[in-house]
Description:
By secondary structure, this protein is α/β, with parallel strands linked by helices. The chain has helices at residues 74-88, 112-115, 124-148, and strands at 2-6, 25-29, 40-43, 46-49, 52-55, 97-100.
Amino acid sequence: TWALGKWHLGFLSNDYTPTYRGYDRYVGYYSGAEQHFSHEKNGMGHNLYDLANNTGKEVAPCLGAVGNASATYSSYLFGNETLRLLDAHDPADPLYVYLAWNNVHDPCQAPQNYIEPHQGIKDSSRRSLAAMVSALDDQLTAVVDKLKA
């Protein structure tokens, strides 16, 4: 079983994290929101890196196993990691994936190639939100296509 994306169910100790709650693998963040590119949690005078890569009882920050995670837009990160895991999965084995993308969640951030098609939207926050939804649509389509293949 895999969990990817937002885990807003506690992280006071390892016992609250996904791999201690029944998941075999987890790539994602624990707090309520994160910066979509840097994966930092900002607030109360702190900027903390909030991206985990856990397998079994190993709980660790995600610094390299899924590529340059610290610079990868969150939709790409969670979508591409799901695709990679699906490619490695034996279809004869049962599968459960909890995939919780953080689009459309503050902060409104999206790659420029998704913002440009929405230039007709005057309000910059609405434009960014539309771009976030477009990025999510593309990643979701890729995952659904992979499952149908």
